[in-house]
């Protein structure tokens, strides 16, 4: 019995160490991708920054594209827990809202929190997509996921009979999809110097104005 306890304890320690190593690698990769760009960042540089071997990088995560994909996934989610975004509490709660304005304000808050984490990485990805087919596919995958999220929100508004008469469902989805583009946050907050709070208020007002009926 005691031996089983020791084995379980050692197994838990190994798992915890592996998770910490993986986090260190992803944090190092994220930082270097943002600072130097995807193309200029090497696996060796990531390994050195994380304090591990090149082999460990490949074993724990994978090659450069997989590193960028995982970094983006974690940035969107806000952590490394294996829980899909649509299954997280903040998303479930906003979709349960019966007041359309409150729903859109809550969604704007979620989008801005994601944008703040994702925008620098997504910029690095879009630059890489200009010359890397696998990176282009990752950009398209991200856009499809964003479209699915926008559709879910708009369909909830339609269920509440809250959509503006001026918007067909497909067009409303397109507007909502554009609102979630990290480039908007990057342009107005990083380039034009808006505060995060100001951007969130503008985004919420824009969504309400564009999507809701009178």
In short:
With 214 residues, the protein is mostly helical. It has helices spanning 2-36, 43-50, 54-60, 64-77, 89-95, 100-129, 133-159, 169-179, 182-191, 196-211.
Q: Secondary-structure blueprint of this entry?
A:
Elements: H1 2-36, H2 43-50, H3 54-60, H4 64-77, H5 89-95, H6 100-129, H7 133-159, H8 169-179, H9 182-191, H10 196-211
Helix pairs in contact: 1-2, 1-4, 4-6, 5-6, 6-7, 6-9, 6-10, 7-8, 8-10
Key terms for this structure?
single chain, 214 residues, mainly alpha, Tetracycline Repressor, domain 2, 2 domains, 10 helices, 77% helix, elongated
Question: What does this entry look like structurally?
Answer:
The chain has 214 residues and is mainly α. It folds into 2 domains: 1-82, Tetracycline Repressor, domain 2 (Orthogonal Bundle); 83-214, Tetracycline Repressor, domain 2 (Orthogonal Bundle), CATH 1.10.357. It is 77% helix and 0% strand. The protein has helices at residues 2-36, 43-50, 54-60, 64-77, 89-95, 100-129, 133-159, 169-179, 182-191, 196-211. Helix 1 (2-36) packs across helix 2, helix 6 (100-129) crosses helix 9 (182-191) and helix 7 (133-159) packs across helix 8.
CATH topology name of the largest domain, in short, is Tetracycline Repressor, domain 2
Compressed to H and E, one letter per element, the order equals HHHHHHHHHH
CATH architecture grouping of the largest domain: Orthogonal Bundle
Distance between termini? Answer: 69 Å
Mean pLDDT: 89
Helix content percent band:
over 70%
Unreliable spans are: none
Beta-strand proportion: under 5%
């Amino acid at each position: 019995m005691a031996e089983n306890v020791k084995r379980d304890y050692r197994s838990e320690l190994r798992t915890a160490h592996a998770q910490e190593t993986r986090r260190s690698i992803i944090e190092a990769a994220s930082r270097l991708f943002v600072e130097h760009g995807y193309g200029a960042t090497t696996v060796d540089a990531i390994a050195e920054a994380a304090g591990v071997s090149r082999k460990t990088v490949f074993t724990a995560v994978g090659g450069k594209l997989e590193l960028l994909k995982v970094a983006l996934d974690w940035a969107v989610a806000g952590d490394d827990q294996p829980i899909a975004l649509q299954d997280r509490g903040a998303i479930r709660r906003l979709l349960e809202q019966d007041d359309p304005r409150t729903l859109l304000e809550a969604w704007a808050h979620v989008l801005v929190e994601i944008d703040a984490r994702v925008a620098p990485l997504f910029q690095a990805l879009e630059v890489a997509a200009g010359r890397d087919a696998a990176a282009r596919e990752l950009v398209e995958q991200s856009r499809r996921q964003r479209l699915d999220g926008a559709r879910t929100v708009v369909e909830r508004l339609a269920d509440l009979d809250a959509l503006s008469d001026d918007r067909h469902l497909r067009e409303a989805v397109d507007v909502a999809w554009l609102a979630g583009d990290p480039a908007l946050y990057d342009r107005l907050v990083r380039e034009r110097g808006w505060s995060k709070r100001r951007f969130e208020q503008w985004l919420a007002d824009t969504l309400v104005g564009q999507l809701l009926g009178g």
